[in-house]
Amino acid sequence: MHQIIDDTLGINLLHANQEDADHNRAHFDAWGITCLNLMSSPGAGKTALLEKTLASLTDDLSIAVIEGDMTTELDADRLRQYGVPVIAINTGRACHLDARMVAGGIHTLSHEHTPQDLDMVIVENVGNLVCPAEFEVGEHAKVALLSVTEGEDKPLKYPVMFREADVLLITKIDLAPYLDVDLARIEANVRQINPHVTVIPVSAKSGEGLEDWFDWVRSAVKSPELTSA
After folding, report:
1. Are 109 and 64 in contact (CB under 8 A)?
2. Full domain range(s) for residue 174
3. For the segment 46-89, what is each residue's pLDDT rounded down to a tens digit?
4. In this structure, what CATH number is given to the domain that contains residue 199?
5. What is the pLDDT of residue 54?
6. Residue pLDDT, tens place only, 130-171
7. What DSSP assignment string belongs to 57-103?
8. Could you say which of 53, 75, 159, 203 would form a disulfide bridge with 174 (CB–CB 3.0 to 4.6 Å)?
9. Measured at the alpha carbon of residue 156, what is the angle toward residues 102 and 38, in degrees to the nearest 5?
10. What is the DSSP string of the chain?
11. Which residue numbers delimit the CobW/HypB/UreG nucleotide-binding domain (predicted)?
């Protein structure tokens, strides 16, 4: 038997979250910061991608990270090794970051650092292929990751994440030769959901495709309005 969900409650929650997200976005805009919301299922490679991004771009860009995890600061500690501000948020049982949680991270960031000196804040959301896409946090763009190990059908089975994404990174492509997976089919399935999404196949291990990702990040900093067009 299916349980009936109160749609009104869900709408009210999303409306309240959107107000908080708009407030966060106003802070980012006032400080001249571009904010990216990095989303994926657990194990798709968000933190590994961030490590490569910070190692390659922090000579040119001033980047801070708001790191979301249900428990621990393991990923936050990995990123702190790159000498950037990292604000850790533990969500407990919550399966995503919402705008109010990120507002707390922004508050901490503004007290411990000078936000006007930053070019970009990257929010690494909790690993989940459903909830993070529904709760905006004030970002200028949503970045979704899908690893080749997850299968070609995930964009069709979990459409909200891919519909909302401004850019999709197909990750761990170095493993593709060892799997029964078709990168072209993954992209075709994504484009059924979101015809205009930018798709960038990458491997944090081999480095393939990373320069295309870095170029996209640089363009987002220069023209953040293009990421949400």
Report:
1. yes
2. 7-222
3. 999 999 999 999 999 999 999 999 999 999 999 999 999 999 99
4. 3.40.50.300
5. 98
6. 999 999 999 999 999 999 999 999 999 999 999 999 999 999
7. HTTTS-EEEEEEESS-SHHHHHHHTTTS-EEEEE-TT-SS--HHHHH
8. 203
9. 20
10. -PPPP-HHHHHHHHHHHHHHHHHHHHHHHHHT-EEEEEE-STTSSHHHHHHHHHHHHTTTS-EEEEEEESS-SHHHHHHHTTTS-EEEEE-TT-SS--HHHHHHHHHHHHHHS-GGG-SEEEEE--S-SSGGGGS--S-SEEEEEEEGGG-TTHHHHSHHHHHH-SEEEEE-GGGGGGSS--HHHHHHHHHHH-TT-EEEE--TTT-TTHHHHHHHHHHHHH-HHHHT-
11. 38-200
With contact defined as beta carbons under 8 Å apart, do 119 and 218 qualify? no
Residue at 88 is within a domain: yes
What residue type is assigned to position 167 of the chain? V
Could you give the number of structural domains in the chain? 1
How many Å is the maximal CA-CA distance in the chain? 57
Residue in 106, 93, 216 with CA at minimum distance from that of residue 165: 216
Q: Please report whether residue 19 resides in a domain.
A: yes
Flag whether 2 is in a domain.
Answer: no
Tokens of residue 118, six digits: 């930053």
Indicate the residue type of 229.
A
Domain presence at residue 216: yes
